[in-house]
UniProtKB/TrEMBL annotation:
Signal peptide: none annotated. It comes from the Bacteria. Its EC number is 3.1.1.106. Residues 1-169 form the Macro domain. One of its GO terms (molecular function) is O-acetyl-ADP-ribose deacetylase activity. The keyword Calcium does not apply. Keywords: Hydrolase. It is an enzyme of class 3 (hydrolase). This is O-acetyl-ADP-ribose deacetylase. It holds the Pfam family Macro. InterPro entries: Macro_dom (IPR002589), Macro_dom-like (IPR043472). It comes from Streptomyces cellulosae.
Length: 169
């Protein structure tokens, strides 16, 4: 049984086996959580991402998929990069968002990770409404068969924390 915990704070300051990065498809860094993870984790993460781009992920990582790299200077063994969908009022992309969580947990299982820290994927610059992003995240983690013992949602501010607390409580 996976325990779900909530923390308000900076995901780059977490100690976990794996930290999930809300990456962009290029895998080469960006803004928000992605930029923060690359900055705090140092050049080893970017070097691993470049190796992935030179190999199987030459065109980038598709939305809803996940892949792991070293965690560099972060207090973790791995960073699991996942590409969330941009929110759209015209098209239901909920399955793509749920896939980010399922695929990240699949990668965590392959690595043997027991603790995984997640941000609120797609709820930042990708515009997903926070309450809906929280519902999809928590419901998907609860429904996913995984050996991960603790999933920790690391929420940047009180508003995000409260949105997730509605579903975890």
């Amino acid at each position: 049984m996976t325990t779900i915990t909530l923390v308000q704070g900076d995901i780059t300051r977490q100690s976990a086996d794996a930290i999930v990065n809300a990456a962009n498809s290029s895998l080469l860094g960006g803004g928000g959580v992605d930029g923060a993870i690359h900055r705090r984790g140092g050049p080893a993460i970017l070097a691993d991402c470049r190796r992935l781009r030179a190999g199987h992920h030459g065109k980038g990582l598709p939305t809803g998929q996940a892949v792991a790299t070293t965690a560099g200077e972060l207090d973790a063994r791995w960073v699991i990069h996942t590409v969330g969908p941009r929110y759209s009022q015209e098209e239901d992309r909920s399955e793509s968002l749920a896939s980010c969580y399922r695929q990240s947990l699949r990668v965590a299982d392959e690595l043997g990770a027991r603790t995984v820290a997640f941000p609120a994927v797609s709820a930042g610059i990708y515009g997903w409404p926070l309450e809906d992003a929280a519902r999809i995240a928590v419901e998907t983690v609860r429904a996913t068969d995984t050996a991960v013992e603790e999933v920790r949602f690391v929420l940047f501010d009180e508003r995000a924390y409260e949105a997730f607390a509605q579903w975890v409580g």
